[in-house]
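#lab-general

N.A. 3:47 PM
ok so I finally got the sequence cleaned up, no stray characters, all 82 residues accounted for. can someone with queue access submit it? mine expired

B.Y. 3:52 PM
send it over

N.A. 3:53 PM
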Amino acid sequence: LRARAEAAAAAAKAEAFGEFRDAAVVEMVLQRLPQVAEAVAQPLLGTRRVTLVGGSGDIGVAKIPSEILDLVTRLPGAVGAL
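B.Y. 4:20 PM
back already:
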């Protein structure tokens, strides 16, 4: 009975995705976006020191959050391209 219920739920989900293709994909991406942001930021948690080497323009530790935000913002376009 459990396997049949799971199969019926999967079939209903597949049917819903078929009817709402783009909306379903966007919803899935948005649901996973916080996890992706966390995974992108995770390596920085253990960072004790940041050394920046650069020239002109905005440099410094203050730029790191904007870089992470930029990466997360570009993610839906990358998913769409896939």
